[in-house]
TrEMBL record:
GO terms for biological process: rescue of stalled ribosome; ribosome-associated ubiquitin-dependent protein catabolic process. GO terms for molecular function: ribosomal large subunit binding; tRNA binding. Belongs to the NEMF family. Its main location: cytoplasm. InterPro entries: NFACT_RNA-bd, RQC_Subunit_NEMF. Pfam families: NFACT-R_1 (PF05670), NFACT_N (PF05833). It comes from Hemiselmis andersenii (Cryptophyte alga). NCBIfam families: RqcH_arch. It is found in: Cytoplasm; Nucleus. One of its GO terms (cellular component) is RQC complex. The keyword Ubl conjugation does not apply. Keywords: Coiled coil, Cytoplasm, Nucleus. This is NFACT RNA-binding domain-containing protein. Residues 497-608 form the NFACT RNA-binding domain.
Length: 651
């Protein structure tokens, strides 16, 4: 994915869109998604808006739910303490910088939440006077020397203001650039550095002026009145008009958004986003959104999905490699034990094949040691005798007198050693000077058996360890696969807080869960043309059939199904008593009780005729409602049509 940060133009457009959503909204809670990303939940007139802030990167509302931290951080708790339950009074960009201030509360109770989108980024909370209460990152500005830390003042006013382009401003900018320019200095770089437009708008203006984006400053005709100068000035004034349009949109107009793909193909990856059509992206495939805020949400959500997918792949690889490491580790241990077993067996057989020679070597060394010869002299004597051709000395490879051992060079054909020494495999064998040849051979046989036993136990434990590692890896892979990441937030319908179902003829039937909901259902949601139902028994739940087709009466089958629900959700269910329900029109339902009587919460007075339905058996079922893809809607047309109306679709 290409673009990773917001430009000045993006900030201005997002502020304009967020003002319409957030002003007057109350902060319900604050959550931290990670160390730099926070989610602010707000509510306004029943509508919930989730504001996402990522330090140094982005801010926008989001329609996607994300995994939240199990335990809120200290910074998150501080935000909750100061801004929760307060209303959003202001959202504004500070000057032309990539800095946005959200004001929660009014007067001395106000707090400013400041998001910095440049350099390392920051999120700063201040009181109404600008004194910093908490922040993500403490630092000192190198240019001004101003320290950004708790209890320091954060200036909300001394920030740069937008300068509209003029002939004088453009000329002075280019003159200053020419004085320090070299052969490789680009016109674009000077304009980006000295003016307040940012790279995207500068490139947009250069293309509009017919100037290549890689035009060298020294190759540009900066003389006042030149064709190039006039074209560039006109293009930058056009950009000023775009910015003015965004500023004036803050009054309530929604600024649309565009996502630009990398190529001309509709399925090519996302590359950039903008609130206007930029000339440098002409010819590429685009995706349009009704608001720039939604475009940014979609763009960054795809980026997050890709990042999470990469993390998921890495976790899967780690889980699999863990099993491989365990397997290879045990295989190496078993291989080493078997090699040791084979080596011990070979050494024992070599000693048995050379019993006399081994005994002679042990006897000679012990005899010389018994005569009191020191170790150094003994080693020299062995070397001298070997050079003279002494067969016993030639067997001795090394004296390990500190461990009471000698190392012998043994083969399975000592009689041929002098004639064909190059072709005989020689093995170095350590023997104990305290034992004879036979005992040394027995020692190696015993070691061989121990190695075999140990290898067997290691193989058995390896199988168990590998199966355990495989089981844990499988559990980890399942956790990775099922772990929720980013999911679109489904819009919750008004009727979902009640008990509800959809009849076989596609009518919504709603019922109160208690007396308070019965009261709310009738007073707020029952409209003209709907049907009110109630079981003919005390304490039954109120039911409403929402008639989406006001010109036609609710069909009998839907009335019967709603009546059955009325009876089953009344005391008749517990009493196992067969009774019936009745229905009336909304105008027959009243909260006015007769003189001297009182209606409790959830109870209503019915005036006029009650239309009783036939008694119903106490039978209820449980169903699942599936949401189908838009491409499949045509396959289900007419499935819930009204009985007796032919093939007419009422969906």
């Amino acid at each position: 994915m290409g673009k990773t940060r917001m430009t000045i133009l993006d900030v201005r457009a997002t502020v304009a869109n967020l003002r319409t959503q957030l002003l007057g909204a109350r902060c319900a809670n604050v959550y931290d998604l990670d160390a730099k990303t926070y989610l602010i939940k707000t509510a306004k007139s029943g509508e919930k808006v989730l504001l996402l802030l990522e330090s140094g990167i982005r801010f926008h509302s989001t329609n996607y739910s994300r995994d939240k931290a199990a335990t809120p951080s200290g910074f998150c708790l501080k935000l909750r303490k100061h801004i929760r339950t307060k209303r959003v009074e202001e959202v504004r960009q500070l000057g032309v910088d990539r800095v946005v201030a959200f004001t929660f509360g009014a007067g001395e109770d106000a707090n400013h939440l400041i998001l910095e989108l440049f350099a390392g980024g920051n999120i700063i909370l201040t009181d109404h006077e600008g004194t910093i209460l908490t922040l993500l990152r403490t630092h000192t500005d190198e240019a001004s020397g101003q320290r950004c830390a708790v209890r320091e003042k954060y200036s909300l006013d001394n920030l740069s203001e937008n300068r509209k382009i003029t002939q004088e401003l453009l000329s002075s900018t280019l003159d200053a650039g020419l004085r320090a320019a070299h052969d490789k200095t680009l016109l674009k770089d000077i304009l980006v550095k000295e003016l307040d437009y940012g790279p995207a708008l500068v490139e947009h203006a250069l293309i509009g002026a017919g100037i290549e984006s890689k035009c060298k400053l020294l190759g540009f005709d900066a003389a006042p009145g030149s064709d190039q100068m006039g074209a560039l000035l006109g293009a930058l004034r056009e950009v000023d008009g775009v910015i003015d349009g965004l500023m004036h949109s803050e009054g309530g107009a929604i600024i649309p958004g565009i996502i630009i793909r990398k190529g001309a193909a509709e399925d090519s990856p996302y590359d950039d986003f903008a609130p206007i059509e930029l000339r440098q992206f002409m010819g590429r495939a685009t995706e349009r959104f009704e608001s720039f805020d939604k475009a940014m949400d979609a763009y960054f959500t795809v980026a997050e999905d890709q990042r999470l997918e990469q993390q998921k792949i890495q976790q899967q690889k780690a889980a699999v490699s863990k099993v491989e490491r365990v397997k290879k580790g045990h295989e190496a241990s078993i291989r080493a034990l078997k090699e040791e077993e084979e080596s011990n067996m070979n050494k024992a057989m070599l000693i048995e094949a050379n019993l006399q020679d081994v005994d002679n070597a042990i006897l000679v060394v012990n005899s010389l040691l018994g005569q009191g010869i020191d170790w150094i002299s003994l080693k020299k004597m062995v070397k001298t005798e070997a050079k003279k051709g002494n067969p016993v000395a030639q067997l001795i490879h090394q004296l390990k007198l500190e461990t009471n051992q000698i190392t012998l060079m043994l083969t399975f054909g000592l009689d041929c050693l002098e004639e064909d020494s190059q072709t005989l495999p020689v093995t170095l064998v350590d023997v104990d000077l305290g034992s004879n040849a036979y005992t040394n051979a027995e020692h190696y046989y015993t070691s061989k058996k121990k190695m075999a036993h140990k290898a067997g136990k290691t193989e058995a434990s390896a199988d168990k360890a590998i199966k355990g590692a495989a089981r844990k890896a499988k559990e980890e892979l399942k956790r990775v696969d099922t772990k929720s990441s980013i999911q679109a937030i489904r819009k919750v319908h008004w009727f979902e807080k009640f008990v509800w179902f959809i009849s076989s003829e596609n009518y919504l039937v709603v019922s109160g869960r208690d007396a308070q909901q019965n009261e709310l259902l009738v007073k707020r949601y029952m409209d003209k043309g709907d049907i009110y139902l109630h079981a003919d028994i005390h304490g039954a739940a109120t039911h409403i059939i929402k008639n989406h087709n006001k010109e036609e009466a609710v069909p009998p089958l839907t009335l019967a199904q709603a009546g059955l629900s009325c009876v089953c959700r009344s005391q008749a269910w517990e009493a196992r008593m067969v009774t019936s329900a009745y229905w009336v029109h909304p105008e027959q339902v009243s909260k006015s009780a007769p003189t001297g009587e009182y209606l409790t919460t959830g109870s209503f007075m019915i005036r006029g005729k009650k239309n009783f339905l036939p008694p119903n058996p106490l039978v209820m079922g449980f169903g699942l409602l599936f949401r189908i893809d838009e491409t499949c809607v045509a396959n289900h047309v007419g499935e819930r049509r009204v009985r007796g109306r032919g093939e007419q679709d009422t969906e």
